[in-house]
Amino acid sequence: MLDVRRLRLLRELAHRGTIAAVADALTYTPSAVSQQLTALEREAGVPLLERTGRSVTLTPAALRLVEHTETILAVLEEATAELASCRTELTGTLRIGAFPTAVHTILSPALVTLSRDHPLLELLVTELDPAAAPAALRAETLDIALLQEYDHVPLAPEPGLDAEPLFEETVHLAAREPGPLAAHADSPWIAGTPGTLCYEMTVRACLAAGFTPRIRHHADDFGTVLALVAAGQGVALVPDLGALTVPSGVILTALSAHRRTHLAYRRGTGAHPVVAAARTALRAAATNPAE
Fold first, then answer.
1. Which residues contact 115 (CB under 8 A, 6 or more apart)?
2. Could you say which protein family the record assigns here (predicted)?
3. Residue 143's pLDDT is what?
């Protein structure tokens, strides 16, 4: 019989790429991860890893086993959800991940609702970039999270996760004077930290307009971004939730691009009473997210 905990380690290795990354995410030592994967190979009876120096690559058999593992873990989550539905009151911990602008506008009212309706539920919030949320959900450090995609940076399918649309925003060009995106090919730009969705959106939107942005400043808080625009330090792209308060002198020009936010959770957990309550509260709060 294959050990589920070892299967989970193999699944994490498929997503994270290195044994060190798996160990760091799941609070193991690298040697412990290696030992458990070696034991899984013995259980499977076929090679699962190809080792070259300090790097490892999953064999075709291992990749197929990872596909089965996603199904196995989802079934276990469904069983846990069904058992939890037998309880008369919601208890335990709900771990929510959200990006900064959503914490202020959507998550806060949802937390008020959850605290009022389910006082025995412990709520834990983590602010993080949406790009980091899928890995946190799979590692079970989050139970539900807000994911984003832009027209120029679509959301990639995430094995083992389910996602549902929550709301959509218009993306604006923030500048000191009105004008189209293409008019700022020679302007300095303000973008998020490299590796974040906001950064990728800025670069790809500019490339689609026919130029490579000359990024002068990096800032992840849209309030800071708009302050830099107001100070004449450059132009930027800002979605609705990031532009609720606009400094004097900054002009927003609506673009055809949009940002879409989705609710995501591990496959099989959608019907869990705790996750279902969070989904309901977040959908209600997102009805008018910019208010």
1. 121, 123
2. Belongs to the LysR transcriptional regulatory family.
3. 97
